[in-house]
Design a protein that fits this description.
Structural class: mainly alpha
Number of strands: 0
Helix content: over 70%
Oligomer: single chain
CATH architecture: Orthogonal Bundle
Low-confidence stretches: none
Mean pLDDT: 87
Strand content: under 5%
CATH topology: MetI-like fold
Shape: elongated
Number of helices: 10
Number of domains: 1
């Protein structure tokens, strides 16, 4: 930490913020710029960002849901849950932006690499959390069904799932919040959406438009977060 350097950074931060405000709120081009004004692009960019986040979260959640039971040490033998947990650890150890770079190189620019990157990273994180929820359940119901001769799937369905379902949905919504933020950041490596336009405006030194897109991103995140809070309250 260099506190002296930090204390001298104020003028540079102020200069950067000064170039960003006031935000560009024009709805039509008022001067020659390389890109259209942000409010013309906001609707499509927000829709694309939400589509990337929701689809990536859905793929990640479904896969983690299936594998999470195998990763719980109270539900499977050691060699099974240890192997699955190691796989989850490897997936979440790779930063989502690195995954996006990999998939951009593999499938090209656009929304698709963002969906794949978010889905892969979500599998690693949600799989770990889902497995931990299964490990924390009350084991009496499982033992009772086991003594009654129920098979593994029946015990999962009637002994485990009713106890973990609310937490699963809550974790999924929390991950969706994170993925919306991540999808905006992925624009810096060529993934379509709000982040891509933030990077385009930044490269053209149009900081007023950058500010507008950042504010739109913040608004989207706040709206989704409030919606998820309401949904989680209903699940309790």
């Amino acid at each position: 930490m260099d506190l002296a350097q930090l204390s001298q950074s104020g003028p540079r931060v102020a200069d950067f913020l000064d170039r960003m405000f006031p935000p560009n709120l024009a709805t039509s081009e008022t001067e020659l710029r390389p890109f259209p004004p942000p409010l013309q692009l906001a609707g499509k960019a927000v829709a694309l960002t939400l589509q990337i986040s929701i689809l990536g979260t859905a793929i990640g959640t479904c896969t983690a849901f299936l594998l999470g039971f195998f990763a719980a040490e109270n539900l499977t033998p050691h060699w099974v849950h240890h192997s699955v947990k190691m796989g989850f650890a490897l997936l979440r150890s790779i930063p989502v932006i690195i995954l996006a770079l990999l998939f951009v190189a593999a499938v090209g620019l656009g929304a698709f690499p963002g969906v794949l990157a978010i889905a892969i990273h979500s599998i690693g994180m949600l799989g770990k959390l889902f497995a931990e929820e299964c490990e924390d359940v009350y084991g009496g119901v499982w033992e009772a069904m086991d003594s009654a001769g129920a098979n593994w799937l029946q015990k999962i369905r009637y002994a485990i799932w009713p106890q973990v379902a609310p937490q699963y949905f809550s974790l999924m919504l929390f991950r969706l919040d994170m993925n919306i933020r991540d999808s905006a950041v992925l624009g810096f490596v060529g993934v379509a959406g709000l982040g891509l336009w933030i990077e385009n405006y930044r490269r053209s030194f149009d900081y007023a438009s950058v500010a507008t897109m950042v504010l739109i991103t913040m608004l989207v995140v706040l709206v989704v977060e409030q919606a998820s809070i309401q949904i989680r309250r209903r699940l309790r």
